[in-house]
Each structure stands twice: as C-alpha cells, then as structure tokens.
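Let us work through a complete example step by step.
Step 1: write down the sequence.
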Amino acid sequence: MARIKGVEIPNNKRIEIALTYIYGIGRSLSNQILKDAKININKKAGELDNEELGRIREEVNKYLTEGDLRREVTMNIKTKMEIKCYQGDRHRKGLPVRGQRTSRNARTRKGKGKVVANKKK
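Step 2: predict the structure and record it as tokens.
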C-alpha cells in the first residue's frame, strides 16, 4: 500500500478512486492531479512505480489537504462562533447550519429524539 499525505491508498482500486481516500480530494481534483502528473486514470494503485508515486505526491502537495484543511475548517467554524454570527450560533446549539427545517427531520444534527411524557386526561 502506498502512502500519500499520511493516508494508506488501497492497492486494488483504480488510482482515480484511490486518491479520493485523501481528505480534500474528490473525483474532479483527482482527475486533475492525474492529468497534471501524466498518469493513466484507469491504472490500479498497486501497479504504480516509485517514479509515478513521486509525481502524484508532488501534485498533491500543491493543494490544501488532510490535516491543514481540517485545521482551517475548524478554525473557520470557531471564528464564526466567536463573532456570534447566525451560522456560529447554529453550530453552538448543534442544529443544522444551512437553512434546513428542524420541525420534522434534522436527526443527524439534533441527535436521538427526546421522549415527552403524556398529559393526564
């Protein structure tokens, strides 16, 4: 297994898909990296030699990925919480940030439903 940016790349997958295991690299950026490195996108990750891996590493280093990107995203969220903007308040309360409804769904952000006791009749 090859390591790029501290992430183990699976050998049995096409390199186009294997690069998406790195945080911050999706399909389109993966294709762009491989095009710039002049590597066939249909090649399996296990078939790459050291020279090709080196070219991929050089291309990946040009982009913000893994730990640096995670750090930047968390710092942006903390900044929004500090300046008390609307999105920061939503982050602080654990509610959906981007305008989704909360009356019916939003269980991913809100967590498990809370049981409300029945009223006596």
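Step 3: interpret the result. The chain has a mean pLDDT of 90.
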